[in-house]
Design goal:
Layout lengths: L3 H24 L18 H29 L1
Amino acid sequence: MISMLARWRVAIALIVVASQLGGCAETMSLAQLPDLAKLPQKVLSKDEQEGKVSEMIEKGQTHQVEAAKQIEKGK
């Protein structure tokens, strides 16, 4: 059997851990959600979305090519 002293030690340890975790929860900042009233009213159409996605893909590819050139230039 576990002695009374050992039980008290376990109980105190659990209380300490719980209080530490509780303190962390209070100080953690929660993610701020955007205010829906401030979001832009215009939503892109399907064609506009596809155009923007293609534009972003092209920019990414151009960036990779430029980065590779810079790396080669540095060697």
